[in-house]
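for the recovery benchmark. C-alpha cells below, seq after
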C-alpha cells in the first residue's frame, strides 16, 4: 500500500492513503476530513468497478 491508493477498512469505509507511517496510514475520508488508520484495520485495496 502506498500514497494515493484507495483502501477499504474492516469497517467498510473507502479511504485514500495520504501518508504511510510505521503503524498507521494517514488517510483522507473526503475533501474536508482526514485521520489516522491503524494498518491492521485495512481489509483490502479498493478497485474502482467499471
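predicted aa per position
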Amino acid at each position: 500500500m502506498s500514497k494515493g491508493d484507495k483502501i477499504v477498512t474492516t469497517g467498510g469505509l473507502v479511504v485514500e492513503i495520504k501518508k504511510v507511517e510505521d503503524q498507521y496510514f494517514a488517510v483522507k475520508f473526503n475533501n474536508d476530513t482526514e485521520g489516522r488508520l491503524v494498518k491492521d484495520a485495512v481489509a483490502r485495496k479498493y478497485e474502482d468497478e467499471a
